[in-house]
Write a structure and sequence with these properties.
This protein is an alpha/beta fold and 222 residues long. It has a single domain, classed as Alpha-Beta Complex (2-enoyl-CoA Hydratase, Chain A, domain 1), CATH 3.90.226. It is 46% helix and 18% strand. The chain has eleven helices and ten strands. The strands form two sheets. It has a six-stranded mixed beta sheet with strand order 1-2-3-5-7-10, with helices on both faces. A four-stranded mixed beta sheet has the order 4-6-8-9. A hairpin with a 2-residue loop joins strand 1 and strand 2. Helix 1 packs parallel to helix 3. The protein is globular.
């Protein structure tokens, strides 16, 4: 389930479907939520958060196996567009990483402007090397934009699971917090940034991450 609510000027996109894997239903719902954020005028920010043990475990591989090749290709472009729409959003974006962020979930978490992870449990992992699934150009570009190169190399070529303290040391996130404080800490940052929303911020992000902007779609496919 994808729910979008407002905490003042901050839009909170809440994922609450177990492991929060990406399939056609959830991806469409995330794009609909991003459409609502995009349509809002004035000060704003976007905060994403999961529930329980999971931020997101990425692509729903079981669901994908039951789709034909053309539908899978369209679906993956829709996932790429989520990464692009968050990375290049005109609003400040923040991820409250409440638990595991694996594969596509790690990519979604990574592309936010500010990332807070639960300090004691949960892992960030790019496990595609273990799954035998090469990263797409869009996924690589998204990770390259927001993960420092030495850490990204280790994450991608080893499939290493990173806990919050090591993520912070490697500059892969901006902050850690106790489980009960992750959302509040992320919301506090987002509330302090809402006045930056607008075209200037969007243009500056595109300038910082030109390769990703050329590679990732930034419009809803639906």
């Amino acid at each position: 389930m994808i729910d979008l609510r407002r905490e003042g000027d901050v839009f909170v996109l809440h994922m609450s479907n177990g492991e929060n894997r990406f399939n056609d239903e959830s991806v469409r719902a995330i794009h609909a939520a991003l459409d609502e954020v995009a349509a809002a005028d004035g000060p704003k920010a976007l905060l994403t958060v999961g529930e329980g043990k999971f931020y997101s475990n990425g692509l729903d591989l079981d669901w994908m196996q039951n789709q034909d090749a053309a539908d899978v290709a369209r679906f993956l472009e829709a996932v790429h567009a989520i990464l692009g729409r968050i990375l290049f959003n005109e609003a400040p974006t923040a991820a409250a990483i409440n638990g595991h962020a694996f594969a596509g979930g790690s990519m979604m978490a990574a592309v936010h402007d500010y990332r807070v992870m639960r300090e004691d449990r949960g892992y960030f992992c790019v496990p595609e090397v273990d799954l035998g699934l090469p990263l797409s150009p869009g996924m690589s570009a998204a990770l390259q934009a927001r993960i420092p190169a030495p850490a990204l190399h280790q994450a991608v070529v080893t499939g290493k699971r990173w806990g919050a303290p090591e993520l912070l040391d490697s500059q892969m996130i901006e902050a850690t917090a106790a489980e009960q404080d992750v959302f509040a800490a992320t919301l506090e940052w987002a509330q302090g940034q809402v006045h930056h929303a607008g075209d200037t911020l969007a243009v500056m992000k595109r300038g910082l991450y030109g390769h990703a902007f050329e590679t990732l779609p930034t419009e809803s496919p639906f």
